[in-house]
Amino acid sequence: MRVTVVGSGYVGLVSGACFSEFGHDVVCVDKDDAKIARLRKGEIPIYEPGLEDLVVRNMRAGRLRFTENLAAAVPSSDAVFIAVGTPSRPGDGHADLGAVYAAADAIADHLGGYTVVVTKSTVPVGTGSQIHKRMRARQPGRRFDVVSNPEFLREGAAIEDFMRPDRVVIGTLSEQARAVMRDLYRPLFFNETPVVFTTRESAELIKYASNAFLATKISFINEMAALCEKLGADVQDVAKGMGLDKRIGSQFLHAGPGYGGSCFPKDTLALIEMARDAGAPTTIVEAVVAVNDRRKAAMVDKIVSACGGSVAGKRIAVLGLTFKPNTDDVRESPALVIVPGLLAAGATVAAYDPEGMEQARALMPDIDYRQDAYATMEGADALVIITEWNQFRALDLARAARLMRSPVLVDLRNIYANGEPEQYGFTYVGVGRGTRKTAGAAKKPQLKLVGA
Predict the structure, then answer these.
(1) Is 263 part of the annotated catalytic residue set?
(2) pLDDT (tens digit, 9 = 90+) per residue, 144-174?
(3) Catalytic residue among 28, 228, 263, 307
(4) What is the 3-state secondary structure (H, E, C) of 366-379?
Protein backbone atom coordinates (compact mmCIF):
# COMPACT_ATOMS: atom_id res chain seq x y z
CA MET A 1 0.00 0.00 0.00
CA ARG A 2 1.03 3.63 -0.46
CA VAL A 3 1.46 5.41 2.87
CA THR A 4 2.38 8.99 3.73
CA VAL A 5 3.43 9.92 7.25
CA VAL A 6 3.24 13.63 8.08
CA GLY A 7 5.82 14.39 10.76
CA SER A 8 9.22 12.73 11.01
CA GLY A 9 9.72 13.00 14.73
CA TYR A 10 9.81 10.07 17.11
CA VAL A 11 6.39 8.56 16.36
CA GLY A 12 6.35 9.41 12.67
CA LEU A 13 9.83 8.12 11.93
CA VAL A 14 9.39 4.87 13.83
CA SER A 15 5.93 4.27 12.33
CA GLY A 16 7.07 5.04 8.81
CA ALA A 17 10.11 2.79 9.06
CA CYS A 18 8.08 -0.07 10.50
CA PHE A 19 5.33 0.22 7.87
CA SER A 20 8.01 0.06 5.19
CA GLU A 21 9.39 -3.05 6.88
CA PHE A 22 5.90 -4.53 6.47
CA GLY A 23 6.39 -4.05 2.73
CA HIS A 24 4.41 -0.86 2.19
CA ASP A 25 5.62 2.06 0.08
CA VAL A 26 6.16 4.84 2.61
CA VAL A 27 6.95 8.53 2.28
CA CYS A 28 7.77 10.50 5.44
CA VAL A 29 7.11 14.23 5.15
CA ASP A 30 8.51 16.98 7.35
CA LYS A 31 8.73 20.74 6.95
CA ASP A 32 12.19 20.76 8.58
CA ASP A 33 14.49 20.79 5.55
CA ALA A 34 17.60 20.07 7.60
CA LYS A 35 16.01 17.01 9.19
CA ILE A 36 14.91 15.66 5.81
CA ALA A 37 18.42 16.19 4.41
CA ARG A 38 19.90 14.19 7.27
CA LEU A 39 17.36 11.40 6.93
CA ARG A 40 18.06 11.09 3.21
CA LYS A 41 21.68 10.42 4.16
CA GLY A 42 20.59 7.74 6.62
CA GLU A 43 21.37 9.95 9.63
CA ILE A 44 18.83 9.47 12.43
CA PRO A 45 18.08 12.62 14.47
CA ILE A 46 16.98 10.65 17.55
CA TYR A 47 18.49 7.79 19.50
CA GLU A 48 16.37 4.64 19.32
CA PRO A 49 17.96 1.18 19.32
CA GLY A 50 17.67 -0.52 15.92
CA LEU A 51 16.07 2.42 14.14
CA GLU A 52 19.04 3.43 12.01
CA ASP A 53 19.44 -0.08 10.58
CA LEU A 54 15.71 -0.28 9.87
CA VAL A 55 15.63 3.06 8.09
CA VAL A 56 18.74 2.43 5.99
CA ARG A 57 17.63 -1.06 4.98
CA ASN A 58 14.23 0.08 3.75
CA MET A 59 15.64 3.15 2.02
CA ARG A 60 17.98 0.89 0.07
CA ALA A 61 15.05 -1.38 -0.78
CA GLY A 62 13.17 1.61 -2.18
CA ARG A 63 10.27 1.30 0.27
CA LEU A 64 11.07 4.35 2.42
CA ARG A 65 11.62 7.93 1.25
CA PHE A 66 11.80 11.36 2.84
CA THR A 67 10.56 14.65 1.44
CA GLU A 68 9.48 18.19 2.31
CA ASN A 69 6.87 18.10 -0.46
CA LEU A 70 3.51 17.12 1.00
CA ALA A 71 1.72 18.00 -2.21
CA ALA A 72 3.65 15.35 -4.12
CA ALA A 73 3.09 12.59 -1.56
CA VAL A 74 -0.59 12.84 -0.59
CA PRO A 75 -2.55 12.47 -3.87
CA SER A 76 -1.40 8.90 -4.55
CA SER A 77 -1.65 7.67 -0.94
CA ASP A 78 -4.04 5.04 0.35
CA ALA A 79 -3.46 6.26 3.91
CA VAL A 80 -1.99 9.45 5.33
CA PHE A 81 -0.87 9.42 8.97
CA ILE A 82 -0.71 12.58 11.08
CA ALA A 83 2.21 12.11 13.48
CA VAL A 84 3.04 15.61 14.66
CA GLY A 85 3.60 16.85 18.19
CA THR A 86 0.82 17.73 20.63
CA PRO A 87 2.70 19.40 23.50
CA SER A 88 1.01 20.94 26.50
CA ARG A 89 -0.33 24.38 25.67
CA PRO A 90 1.49 27.02 27.71
CA GLY A 91 -0.54 28.22 30.64
CA ASP A 92 -3.45 25.78 30.78
CA GLY A 93 -2.27 22.17 30.25
CA HIS A 94 -4.50 21.51 27.23
CA ALA A 95 -2.95 19.69 24.28
CA ASP A 96 -1.76 22.13 21.62
CA LEU A 97 -3.42 20.94 18.40
CA GLY A 98 -2.04 23.63 16.12
CA ALA A 99 0.30 21.28 14.26
CA VAL A 100 -2.40 18.60 13.95
CA TYR A 101 -4.94 20.95 12.39
CA ALA A 102 -2.31 22.49 10.11
CA ALA A 103 -1.37 19.01 8.87
CA ALA A 104 -5.03 18.08 8.34
CA ASP A 105 -5.68 21.25 6.33
CA ALA A 106 -2.64 20.64 4.14
CA ILE A 107 -3.66 17.02 3.56
CA ALA A 108 -7.17 18.10 2.59
CA ASP A 109 -5.82 20.49 -0.02
CA HIS A 110 -3.98 17.68 -1.82
CA LEU A 111 -6.31 14.69 -1.60
CA GLY A 112 -6.56 12.47 -4.66
CA GLY A 113 -8.85 9.44 -4.67
CA TYR A 114 -10.35 7.80 -1.59
CA THR A 115 -7.92 8.30 1.30
CA VAL A 116 -7.86 7.24 4.93
CA VAL A 117 -6.48 10.02 7.12
CA VAL A 118 -5.17 8.56 10.36
CA THR A 119 -4.35 10.43 13.58
CA LYS A 120 -1.30 8.79 15.15
CA SER A 121 -0.67 11.84 17.32
CA THR A 122 -2.12 11.76 20.82
CA VAL A 123 -5.16 14.03 20.63
CA PRO A 124 -8.09 14.85 22.94
CA VAL A 125 -11.41 13.13 22.43
CA GLY A 126 -13.33 14.76 19.61
CA THR A 127 -10.27 15.84 17.63
CA GLY A 128 -10.96 13.27 14.88
CA SER A 129 -14.42 14.72 14.41
CA GLN A 130 -13.02 18.23 14.22
CA ILE A 131 -10.45 17.11 11.64
CA HIS A 132 -13.21 15.56 9.56
CA LYS A 133 -15.26 18.78 9.67
CA ARG A 134 -12.27 20.93 8.70
CA MET A 135 -11.33 18.67 5.82
CA ARG A 136 -14.91 18.36 4.59
CA ALA A 137 -15.24 22.15 4.59
CA ARG A 138 -12.12 22.42 2.42
CA GLN A 139 -12.95 19.46 0.17
CA PRO A 140 -16.75 18.91 0.06
CA GLY A 141 -16.54 16.59 -2.94
CA ARG A 142 -13.60 14.36 -1.97
CA ARG A 143 -13.92 10.85 -0.56
CA PHE A 144 -12.01 10.27 2.67
CA ASP A 145 -12.37 8.93 6.19
CA VAL A 146 -10.67 10.06 9.39
CA VAL A 147 -9.47 7.26 11.67
CA SER A 148 -7.93 7.28 15.16
CA ASN A 149 -4.98 4.90 15.52
CA PRO A 150 -3.09 5.88 18.70
CA GLU A 151 0.49 4.81 19.22
CA PHE A 152 1.74 2.86 22.24
CA LEU A 153 5.48 3.05 21.66
CA ARG A 154 7.94 2.99 24.52
CA GLU A 155 11.06 5.00 23.89
CA GLY A 156 13.97 2.59 23.85
CA ALA A 157 11.76 -0.32 22.71
CA ALA A 158 9.68 1.34 19.99
CA ILE A 159 10.45 -1.03 17.13
CA GLU A 160 9.59 -4.09 19.21
CA ASP A 161 6.40 -2.37 20.36
CA PHE A 162 5.35 -1.62 16.77
CA MET A 163 6.23 -5.04 15.38
CA ARG A 164 4.89 -7.07 18.32
CA PRO A 165 2.34 -4.85 20.04
CA ASP A 166 0.05 -5.80 22.90
CA ARG A 167 -2.82 -4.50 20.77
CA VAL A 168 -3.68 -2.25 17.86
CA VAL A 169 -6.51 0.24 18.42
CA ILE A 170 -8.44 1.49 15.38
CA GLY A 171 -11.24 4.02 15.79
CA THR A 172 -13.68 4.25 12.88
CA LEU A 173 -17.21 3.21 11.94
CA SER A 174 -16.42 3.14 8.21
CA GLU A 175 -16.15 -0.36 6.76
CA GLN A 176 -14.02 0.93 3.89
CA ALA A 177 -11.59 2.55 6.32
CA ARG A 178 -11.50 -0.65 8.40
CA ALA A 179 -10.54 -2.62 5.29
CA VAL A 180 -7.68 -0.24 4.54
CA MET A 181 -6.41 -0.43 8.14
CA ARG A 182 -6.60 -4.22 8.07
CA ASP A 183 -4.42 -4.24 4.96
CA LEU A 184 -1.93 -1.87 6.57
CA TYR A 185 -1.60 -4.06 9.65
CA ARG A 186 -1.97 -7.38 7.85
CA PRO A 187 1.36 -8.81 9.16
CA LEU A 188 0.10 -8.33 12.72
CA PHE A 189 -3.15 -10.12 11.96
CA PHE A 190 -1.02 -13.11 10.89
CA ASN A 191 0.68 -12.92 14.32
CA GLU A 192 -2.76 -12.90 15.99
CA THR A 193 -2.19 -9.48 17.53
CA PRO A 194 -5.39 -8.30 19.26
CA VAL A 195 -7.00 -5.54 17.20
CA VAL A 196 -9.61 -3.35 18.86
CA PHE A 197 -12.05 -1.76 16.40
CA THR A 198 -14.05 0.98 18.08
CA THR A 199 -15.29 4.54 17.59
CA ARG A 200 -12.91 7.45 17.09
CA GLU A 201 -13.83 8.86 20.48
CA SER A 202 -13.14 5.59 22.31
CA ALA A 203 -9.82 5.13 20.51
CA GLU A 204 -8.73 8.65 21.43
CA LEU A 205 -9.61 8.07 25.09
CA ILE A 206 -7.94 4.63 25.23
CA LYS A 207 -4.59 6.32 24.68
CA TYR A 208 -5.07 8.87 27.46
CA ALA A 209 -6.57 6.36 29.87
CA SER A 210 -3.70 3.94 29.30
CA ASN A 211 -1.00 6.50 29.99
CA ALA A 212 -2.83 7.92 33.00
CA PHE A 213 -3.22 4.46 34.51
CA LEU A 214 0.48 3.67 34.10
CA ALA A 215 1.39 7.03 35.60
CA THR A 216 -0.95 6.21 38.50
CA LYS A 217 0.94 2.98 39.21
CA ILE A 218 4.21 4.91 39.30
CA SER A 219 2.95 7.59 41.66
CA PHE A 220 1.29 4.97 43.85
CA ILE A 221 4.45 2.93 44.36
CA ASN A 222 6.42 6.11 44.98
CA GLU A 223 4.02 7.03 47.77
CA MET A 224 4.44 3.52 49.17
CA ALA A 225 8.21 4.02 49.01
CA ALA A 226 7.93 7.16 51.13
CA LEU A 227 5.77 5.21 53.60
CA CYS A 228 8.28 2.35 53.66
CA GLU A 229 11.02 4.77 54.68
CA LYS A 230 8.93 5.88 57.66
CA LEU A 231 7.89 2.39 58.75
CA GLY A 232 11.06 0.40 58.06
CA ALA A 233 9.59 -1.70 55.25
CA ASP A 234 11.25 -2.47 51.91
CA VAL A 235 9.40 -1.11 48.86
CA GLN A 236 10.98 -3.70 46.59
CA ASP A 237 9.50 -6.49 48.67
CA VAL A 238 6.18 -4.66 48.81
CA ALA A 239 6.15 -4.23 45.02
CA LYS A 240 7.05 -7.87 44.47
CA GLY A 241 4.32 -9.03 46.81
CA MET A 242 1.81 -6.80 45.06
CA GLY A 243 2.92 -7.59 41.53
CA LEU A 244 2.49 -11.34 41.91
CA ASP A 245 -1.23 -10.70 42.08
CA LYS A 246 -2.35 -11.11 38.46
CA ARG A 247 -4.97 -8.43 38.94
CA ILE A 248 -2.19 -5.91 39.67
CA GLY A 249 0.88 -7.07 37.75
CA SER A 250 4.51 -6.13 38.35
CA GLN A 251 5.10 -3.59 35.58
CA PHE A 252 5.46 0.07 36.56
CA LEU A 253 5.77 -0.82 40.24
CA HIS A 254 9.37 0.35 40.48
CA ALA A 255 9.94 3.12 43.00
CA GLY A 256 12.10 5.98 41.81
CA PRO A 257 12.36 9.74 41.37
CA GLY A 258 9.11 10.14 39.42
CA TYR A 259 8.01 9.77 35.82
CA GLY A 260 9.01 12.03 32.93
CA GLY A 261 9.35 11.88 29.16
CA SER A 262 7.33 13.08 26.22
CA CYS A 263 4.06 11.30 27.05
CA PHE A 264 3.02 10.84 30.67
CA PRO A 265 3.45 14.47 31.84
CA LYS A 266 1.61 16.10 28.94
CA ASP A 267 -1.02 13.37 28.56
CA THR A 268 -2.03 13.38 32.22
CA LEU A 269 -2.39 17.17 32.12
CA ALA A 270 -4.39 17.02 28.90
CA LEU A 271 -6.70 14.36 30.35
CA ILE A 272 -7.28 16.47 33.46
CA GLU A 273 -8.25 19.52 31.38
CA MET A 274 -10.38 17.46 28.99
CA ALA A 275 -12.24 15.92 31.94
CA ARG A 276 -12.79 19.29 33.61
CA ASP A 277 -14.22 20.71 30.40
CA ALA A 278 -16.56 17.71 30.17
CA GLY A 279 -17.76 18.17 33.75
CA ALA A 280 -16.29 14.85 34.92
CA PRO A 281 -13.11 15.73 36.85
CA THR A 282 -10.44 13.03 37.14
CA THR A 283 -9.43 13.64 40.73
CA ILE A 284 -7.25 10.52 40.86
CA VAL A 285 -5.19 11.71 37.89
CA GLU A 286 -4.93 15.17 39.41
CA ALA A 287 -3.45 13.56 42.54
CA VAL A 288 -1.06 11.49 40.40
CA VAL A 289 0.36 14.64 38.82
CA ALA A 290 0.71 16.38 42.18
CA VAL A 291 2.46 13.35 43.71
CA ASN A 292 4.87 13.18 40.80
CA ASP A 293 5.77 16.86 41.05
CA ARG A 294 6.42 16.54 44.78
CA ARG A 295 8.40 13.35 44.22
CA LYS A 296 10.99 14.99 41.99
CA ALA A 297 11.50 17.84 44.46
CA ALA A 298 11.76 15.39 47.37
CA MET A 299 14.74 13.71 45.71
CA VAL A 300 16.75 16.90 46.22
CA ASP A 301 16.02 16.71 49.95
CA LYS A 302 17.03 13.05 49.99
CA ILE A 303 20.41 13.85 48.46
CA VAL A 304 20.97 16.78 50.81
CA SER A 305 20.14 14.56 53.80
CA ALA A 306 22.56 11.89 52.59
CA CYS A 307 25.26 14.57 52.47
CA GLY A 308 24.78 15.44 56.12
CA GLY A 309 22.11 18.11 55.76
CA SER A 310 23.88 20.47 53.37
CA VAL A 311 25.43 20.31 49.90
CA ALA A 312 26.78 23.87 49.98
CA GLY A 313 30.30 23.79 48.59
CA LYS A 314 30.08 20.06 47.85
CA ARG A 315 30.61 18.29 44.54
CA ILE A 316 27.86 15.90 43.45
CA ALA A 317 28.40 13.32 40.71
CA VAL A 318 25.24 12.55 38.72
CA LEU A 319 24.79 9.50 36.50
CA GLY A 320 21.87 9.62 34.07
CA LEU A 321 20.07 12.67 32.69
CA THR A 322 17.47 11.16 30.34
CA PHE A 323 14.04 10.30 31.71
CA LYS A 324 14.70 6.58 31.09
CA PRO A 325 17.51 4.45 29.61
CA ASN A 326 17.94 3.68 25.89
CA THR A 327 16.85 7.11 24.72
CA ASP A 328 18.37 10.57 24.35
CA ASP A 329 15.13 12.23 25.50
CA VAL A 330 15.43 14.48 28.55
CA ARG A 331 11.94 15.97 28.33
CA GLU A 332 10.41 16.25 31.81
CA SER A 333 13.24 14.11 33.18
CA PRO A 334 13.58 14.06 36.97
CA ALA A 335 17.14 15.28 36.38
CA LEU A 336 15.76 18.62 35.19
CA VAL A 337 14.37 19.18 38.71
CA ILE A 338 17.02 17.42 40.77
CA VAL A 339 20.16 18.96 39.25
CA PRO A 340 18.93 22.59 39.38
CA GLY A 341 17.77 21.92 42.94
CA LEU A 342 21.26 20.84 43.93
CA LEU A 343 22.79 23.87 42.23
CA ALA A 344 20.36 26.15 44.06
CA ALA A 345 21.42 24.52 47.33
CA GLY A 346 25.04 25.48 46.67
CA ALA A 347 26.45 22.30 45.15
CA THR A 348 28.53 21.90 42.03
CA VAL A 349 27.45 19.06 39.75
CA ALA A 350 29.41 16.81 37.41
CA ALA A 351 27.23 14.65 35.18
CA TYR A 352 27.36 11.91 32.57
CA ASP A 353 24.72 10.27 30.40
CA PRO A 354 25.42 7.81 27.57
CA GLU A 355 23.09 9.52 25.06
CA GLY A 356 21.46 12.61 26.56
CA MET A 357 24.38 14.99 27.16
CA GLU A 358 23.76 17.27 24.17
CA GLN A 359 20.08 17.65 24.94
CA ALA A 360 20.73 18.23 28.64
CA ARG A 361 23.46 20.78 27.99
CA ALA A 362 20.98 23.01 26.16
CA LEU A 363 18.74 23.06 29.25
CA MET A 364 21.35 22.91 32.03
CA PRO A 365 24.50 24.67 30.82
CA ASP A 366 25.89 25.32 34.31
CA ILE A 367 27.07 21.82 35.17
CA ASP A 368 30.29 19.96 34.44
CA TYR A 369 29.63 17.37 31.73
CA ARG A 370 32.14 14.52 31.79
CA GLN A 371 33.15 11.90 29.22
CA ASP A 372 32.36 8.83 31.30
CA ALA A 373 30.89 7.71 34.61
CA TYR A 374 34.15 7.56 36.52
CA ALA A 375 35.22 11.05 35.45
CA THR A 376 32.18 12.45 37.25
CA MET A 377 33.28 10.81 40.50
CA GLU A 378 36.69 12.51 40.84
CA GLY A 379 36.66 14.41 44.12
CA ALA A 380 32.90 13.98 44.55
CA ASP A 381 31.18 14.12 47.92
CA ALA A 382 28.28 11.98 46.71
CA LEU A 383 27.33 9.87 43.72
CA VAL A 384 23.69 10.04 42.56
CA ILE A 385 22.13 7.60 40.08
CA ILE A 386 19.09 9.16 38.41
CA THR A 387 18.67 6.98 35.29
CA GLU A 388 19.13 3.20 35.31
CA TRP A 389 21.33 2.75 32.23
CA ASN A 390 22.76 -0.77 32.12
CA GLN A 391 26.33 0.47 32.31
CA PHE A 392 25.57 1.97 35.73
CA ARG A 393 24.35 -1.37 37.11
CA ALA A 394 27.84 -2.87 37.43
CA LEU A 395 30.12 -0.01 38.39
CA ASP A 396 33.57 -0.79 39.75
CA LEU A 397 32.66 0.32 43.26
CA ALA A 398 36.18 -0.09 44.59
CA ARG A 399 37.44 2.32 41.91
CA ALA A 400 34.51 4.65 42.58
CA ALA A 401 35.30 4.79 46.30
CA ARG A 402 38.94 5.63 45.57
CA LEU A 403 37.99 8.45 43.21
CA MET A 404 35.49 10.10 45.56
CA ARG A 405 36.25 12.43 48.43
CA SER A 406 33.34 10.96 50.39
CA PRO A 407 31.87 7.56 49.41
CA VAL A 408 28.13 8.28 49.52
CA LEU A 409 25.91 6.58 46.94
CA VAL A 410 22.34 7.83 46.48
CA ASP A 411 20.64 5.27 44.25
CA LEU A 412 17.32 6.73 43.08
CA ARG A 413 16.53 3.59 41.02
CA ASN A 414 17.48 0.91 43.58
CA ILE A 415 19.75 -0.84 41.10
CA TYR A 416 22.16 -1.83 43.89
CA ALA A 417 19.95 -3.89 46.13
CA ASN A 418 22.15 -6.54 47.71
CA GLY A 419 24.31 -4.59 50.13
CA GLU A 420 27.35 -4.61 47.85
CA PRO A 421 28.13 -0.86 48.01
CA GLU A 422 28.60 -0.96 51.78
CA GLN A 423 31.30 -3.58 51.35
CA TYR A 424 33.41 -0.99 49.56
CA GLY A 425 32.98 1.66 52.22
CA PHE A 426 29.93 3.42 50.81
CA THR A 427 27.12 4.91 52.77
CA TYR A 428 24.24 3.74 50.62
CA VAL A 429 20.92 5.56 50.31
CA GLY A 430 18.16 3.82 48.38
CA VAL A 431 14.50 4.58 47.74
CA GLY A 432 11.85 3.12 50.05
CA ARG A 433 14.13 0.50 51.55
CA GLY A 434 14.11 1.32 55.23
CA THR A 435 17.24 1.14 57.37
CA ARG A 436 19.58 -1.84 57.12
CA LYS A 437 22.99 -2.92 58.22
CA THR A 438 25.14 -4.93 55.89
CA ALA A 439 25.78 -8.49 57.02
CA GLY A 440 29.18 -9.38 55.63
CA ALA A 441 32.72 -10.27 56.56
CA ALA A 442 33.85 -8.60 59.74
CA LYS A 443 36.92 -7.13 58.05
CA LYS A 444 34.80 -5.15 55.62
CA PRO A 445 33.28 -1.78 56.52
CA GLN A 446 29.86 -2.22 58.07
CA LEU A 447 27.99 0.95 57.20
CA LYS A 448 24.26 1.31 57.53
CA LEU A 449 21.91 1.73 54.59
CA VAL A 450 19.92 4.90 55.06
CA GLY A 451 16.43 5.02 53.62
CA ALA A 452 15.59 8.68 54.10
Answers:
(1) yes
(2) 999 999 999 999 999 999 999 999 999 999 9
(3) 263
(4) CCEECCCHHHHHCC
